[in-house]
Amino acid sequence: MAHDDTIFDAAGGLDGLTSLAHAWHLRVLADEVVVHSFSHGYHADHTHRLATYWAEALGGPAHYSRAIADESAVIRMHSGNGAHDEMDERAIACFEAALADVGFDADPRLFLALADYFRWATTGPMAAYPDSADDVPDGLAIARWDWDGPL
Q1: CA nearest 8: which of 53, 40, 46?
Q2: Phi, psi angle pair for 102, to nearest 5°
């Protein structure tokens, strides 16, 4: 794969990221620890929304922030639950397994870029407000990630 394109392009665009979101979602729902994060339920279109979010973060179109929500709303969904390091590590392991499930391990640079992005997002922005969702500031933009890391 050419790496002068965005990660979004190298991953096969929205279709590729939708396949990844589906594979990850199946894995986390099967994980006895990570499934707890979905115990409150989840949006019926979770897989598509997640893929659309990743698409924007990884160099694709800004459909998520234009039509669904901004970064503040996303981070609020992940905030106020205290620290959950074990769950985060297991979610990351599920993501890396899902990368292999959809064949992204065939391109080591793509695999690493996506794995690094997910680890960073999970342990960084999504974990930044463990005490309360009310602590998340308004108006945050979706963090962008490219081959060299966060933009």
Answers
A1: 53
A2: -100, 5
Are residues 115 and 145 in contact, defined by beta-carbon separation less than 8 angstroms? Answer: no
Q: Determine whether 26 is exposed, middle or buried from the number of CB atoms within 10 Å of its CB (0-12, 13-18, 19+).
A: middle
Tell me which H or E stretch contains 150. Answer: strand 149-150
Q: Is 50 exposed, middle or buried (0-12, 13-18, 19+ CB in 10 A)?
A: buried
Contact 128, 110 (CB under 8 A): no
Q: Could you tell me the two tokens for 5?
A: 């394109």
82 DSSP 8-state letter: -
Work out the end-to-end distance of the chain between its first and last CA atoms, rounded to an integer number of angstroms.
Answer: 22
HSE at residue 151, side-chain half, CA atoms within 13 A, is: 13
What pTM value is reported for the model?
Answer: 0.92
* 2-23 confidence digits (pLDDT tens): 456 999 999 999 999 999 999 9
